[in-house]
Amino acid sequence: MIKAVDNKTRFRRLFFALALPDALQRTIVPWRADNFPPEAGRPIAAANLHLTLAFLGEVSHAKAQVLQQQAGRISQSGFNITLDDIGHWPNSGVIWLGCKNPPRGLLQLAQLLRSQAARSGCYQTPLPFHPHVTLFRGAIRPVTIPAKAPNESFRADLFSLYESVFTRGRTRYNIVQSWPLASTERKPDAI
Question: Where does the record place the catalytic residues (predicted)?
Answer without folding.
Answer: 50, 132
